[in-house]
Amino acid sequence: MKQRVLRLSAAISLGLAATGAMAAAHDANVTRATLDNGMRVVIVRDTLAPVVTTEMNYLAGSDEVPAGFPGTAHAVEHMMFRGSPGLSKDQLAAVAANMGGAFNADTTQGVTQYYFVAPAQDLDVALHVQSLRMRGVDMAPAAWAKERGAIEQEVSRDLSSPSFKFRSQLMAQMFAGTPYAHTPLGTRESFDKTTAAMLKKFHDTWYAPNNAILVIAGDVDPSATLAKVKAEFGGIARRMVPAKPAFDFKPVQAKTVSLPTDTPYGTVAIAYRTPGLTSKDYATSLVLSQALGSQRAALAGMRFDGTALFGGFMGQALPHAGVDYAIGIFPRGGNPQPILKRMQSILAEAASKGVDPALVEAAKRKAIAALEFKKNSVDGLANAWSSALAMQGAESPDEIKQAIEAVTPAQVNALAKATFDPAHAITAILTPQSSGKPVAGKGFGGAESFASSPDKPVTLPGWAANAFAKLEVPRSALKPVSYTLPNGLKLIVQPESVSDTVEVFGNINTNQDLQAPKGEEGVADVLDGLFPFGTTDMNRLQFQQALDQISAHVSNGSSFSLAVPSAHFDEGIKLLAAGELHPALPAQAFAVVQHQTAAGVAGELQSPGTLLQLGLAKALFPAHDPDLRHPTPQSVMGLSLDKVKQYYAQAFRPDMTTIVVVGKVDPAQAKQAVEQAFGGWKASGPKPDVDYAAVPPNKVGQLHVPDSSAVQDSVTLAQTVNVTRDDPARFALNLGNQVLGGGFYASRFYHDLRDKAGLVYTVSSHFDLDKHRGTYNVSYGCDPDKVAAARAMVLRDLKQMQATPVSASDLKRAKGILLRQLPLRESSFGAIGHQLLTLSQQGKPLDAMTVAGEHYLKLTAKDVQQAYAKHIRTDAFVTAVKGPTPKG
Question: What stretch or stretches form a coiled coil here (predicted)?
Fold first, then answer.
């Protein structure tokens, strides 16, 4: 791998002031610089795929907002997508869509991030857009009035989440009197008082180059990239930035919060204030959190001994402080008090006696390994650097690594003693409640009519038009090596050298609905719950300890995975195979898992989300269709361990299994290791049929599932389609779907429902195509009085697709999105692994994505129109609504 690094002399010639050495001496792939205007730049070369991520970090967020206006930074983030001088809103949307990747932002307490994930060829475009938006943003009152409708829908969505309500109350109690007392989201009341002028002032005050850090990661030439950055941003003048707000944390007073929840299960949480990202004790806090969250620790043990459905420890770290939670999950109708007492006892013991040193050392190894795994994704690598620099005040992720390495058990124990004081704990109990049974919907089908007024094609600026002028199928960087072992197991190896790690993705093609005997619904769920209890040779603690020794993570079941440092690949594969092929399936554990699964199912069957899915399936598929099968408490409690073992022996077969290995490993070595570990696995009898049969078209229908915890409705329009995953028509439908639902603001659904009407915050559409059947879905969230209007707009846009060929500009943009997405599907180990796994199990060639690109390139507007006219039935949607009763 060639490594081209910008030298100090080159930086001087570019008129840049270096921050110390241009790069860490041990990492020639990292280039650093500070422009004359104070903007810091870090370029991290990563050759995993021809993809680049640009992440602009402004060191301002909800901490810096005016008093009484908690959502100002969030609102500015939204308005940054409404255009800038020299780039209109529609042009920005079209540019982002043409790039085909991710184009988004997020607002946190102290940092607001704007990022592109795009093909490396579009780096110039991404940098120019980021530059224009730093220079200025359009803040017209009329534009803010429209965007306010969308952002208020986002507020409604989050306020419909009981967990968000809990976090909001927790932050207010934990951080009273500081900027952390409010979330970055904002409130509808404050947005109603917010003006466009206020938003512009915030942008002009804080969005200065000397208050920004630009991180670029991907397959780029560092020297040339730094020159482009200088050309784009060097002329932006630095500005005086106000002082950051002060944080004066007062002691937390113990409190218990009780809330209802729409989830199938209840939650007990005990929260404590902990050191923040910039604290000298943050690494210690991180290790303590991971040690207590270990599968070998007592909190996780609550799941395995039947005390709780799940137990663990997790946290959220902010720059100046953090919040860590001990978590226990109880079934609907269950008593949370025994779990609460057990959690309190575990934390008290950690405070008084300390944490097992073995768990501390394992936590350290895993935390360090996690930093190495970040390299396995282009955008993950950019996020790691942005977090280190912008949020943690460090010079690099390596500095975080060094801090973790220096943590001692004594430091962990001291922090546990100081933190886990019941007098400063906030306890929350979220109890499931029933919202009512689903009812046939009336009055929300919508009879509104919206005159269709197609927008004029967007004329791109010359610099963008030139970048997108040529459409071509990108060359795949993948060169997988494929094997079929004597027992029928398929193995695919994709060597990669960007990190010293290997990730393994496996799947056994099973279908409980078609393979489980009648009356044994839920058998696969019980089986999945038994895998964590160890193997025939190692109990669960011994198995987890073996994984901890090599800093590996394994999950077992019909879908299984391994993440391991490459030096321990052979050992990791052996452990993966041991868990997959020789699960212990102990009788004592079966009794625990059976009761946990039955309790979980009972809760799910009363939760609004599950009721919505069951209702949709019943409306879409004929009676007695296998897809309508689902576990019940009775079917789960009717199982025996022998029935679970019989299902395992029947459904888990090597000739139905594919394993994909991605990472720093030689294909021959991988084949040898996998063959040794999995080669003795045998199958008997003919292969089972695991694909659902074709179904007739569904009839129109309506369904409303009450959800008393929600203030916003979640709406799904769904129908069956007579298209399968192998049908050539899928290409035209997918291309049309990019026009309707792809490319952020540039899609018709986003443009009409969000941008023009302000009815929704998000809207999405997708096809779900199986071997013999398929469905088409459109989903959005909105206030109850907007359900019908949004539905009418969706149907209008679909009818327009059927009646009129899409414009040449829309067609070209949709093709560009799909073609540019091809390299993005290869920009992380996970994306590579799941793509190859899916293609193999569907019986498609491993270069099928390139073949698809060639199909998209040839399609015409008439092809798209005909496909939608033939396969989409605008009068046959099932409209399913979860939330308050729709109005109007």
Answer: none
Angle value at C-alpha 72, between 70 and 73, nearest 5 degrees:
105
Any domain includes 246: no
Beta strands in 599-730 (DSSP E): 657-663, 701-706, 713-721
Q: What are the strands, taking DSSP E only, across 398-500?
A: 426-432, 481-484, 490-495
Strands 321-331 and 265-275: antiparallel
Inter-helix orientation angle 196-206/72-79, to 10°: 90
Give the CA angle between residues 320, 324, 326 to the nearest 5°: 175
Give residue 586's identity as a one-letter amino acid code: P
Dist CA 637 CA 657 (whole Å): 29
- Cβ–Cβ under 8 Å, residues 48 and 219: yes
- 557: alpha, beta or left, given left = phi > 0 and alpha = psi -120 to 50? left
Taken in order 159, 160, 162, 163, is the CA torsion positive or negative? negative
Residue 3 lies in a domain: no
Single out the residue of 360, 390, 503 nearest to residue 115, CA to CA. Answer: 390
Say what percent of the chain tops pLDDT 70.
93
Check if the beta carbon of residue 712 is closer than 8 Å to that of residue 153: yes
Helix (H) or strand (E) holding 98: helix 89-99
pLDDT 10s digits, 79-99: 999 899 999 988 998 888 888
Rounded to an integer, what distance in angstroms lies between the CA atom of residue 226 and that of residue 41? 8
* Contact (Cβ atoms closer than 8 angstroms) between residue 404 and residue 368: yes
Hey, which residues does 768 pair with through a beta bridge? Answer: 775
Give me 888's structure tokens: 């109007």
Res 44 pLDDT > 80: yes
What's the average model confidence in pLDDT over 163-192? 87
Q: Is there a single domain that holds both residue 389 and residue 489?
A: no
| Gap between the Cα atoms of 662 and 644, Å rounded | 32
For 524, the enclosing helix (H) or strand (E) is helix 523-530
Q: Residue 146: which pLDDT band, with cuts at 50, 70 and 90? A: confident
Structural domain count, the chain = 4
Residue with tokens 């005016």: 66
Check if the beta carbon of residue 658 is closer than 8 Å to that of residue 840: yes
> Which pair of structure tokens corresponds to residue 449?
């009519």
Under a CB-based contact definition with an 8 Å cutoff, are residues 105 and 207 in contact?
no
Q: 554 and 642: one domain?
A: yes
Range of 573's domain?
481-678
The answer to whether 44 and 26 have CB atoms below 8 angstroms apart is no
Q: Are residues 544 and 417 in the same domain?
A: no
User: Could you tell me if 144 and 208 lie in one domain?
Assistant: yes
Answer yes or no: are the C-beta atoms of 734 and 814 closer than 8 Å.
no
Angle between helices 409-419 and 282-292 (to 10 degrees): 80
Tens-digit pLDDT profile for residues 392-407: 999 999 999 999 999 9
CATH of the domain at 841: 3.30.830.10
Give the DSSP H or E segment for 779: strand 774-782
Cα–Cα distance for residue pair 681/508, rounded to 1 Å: 13
* pLDDT in the model for residue 785: 93
Which has more pLDDT, 158 or 803? Answer: 803
Evaluate whether 719 touches 873 at the Cβ level (below 8 Å): yes
pLDDT confidence tier of residue 757, bands split at 50, 70 and 90: confident
Q: What is the pLDDT, as a whole number, of residue 2? A: 27
**In the structure, what pLDDT confidence band is assigned to residue 690 with cuts at 50, 70 and 90?**
very high
Q: Report d(CA 710, CA 697) in Å as an integer.
A: 32
Contact 167, 318 (CB under 8 A): no
Identify residue 537 by its one-letter amino acid code: D
The answer to whether residue 369 is domain-embedded is yes
Look at residues 615, 648, 678 and tell me which one is the last residue of a structural domain: 678
Positive or negative: CA dihedral 165, 167, 171, 174: positive
Phi, psi of 557 (to 5 degrees): 145, -165
Compute the CA torsion angle 748, 754, 758, 762 (nearest 10 deg): 140
Which residues neighbour 669 within 8 Å (Cβ) at sequence distance 6 or greater? Answer: 569, 570
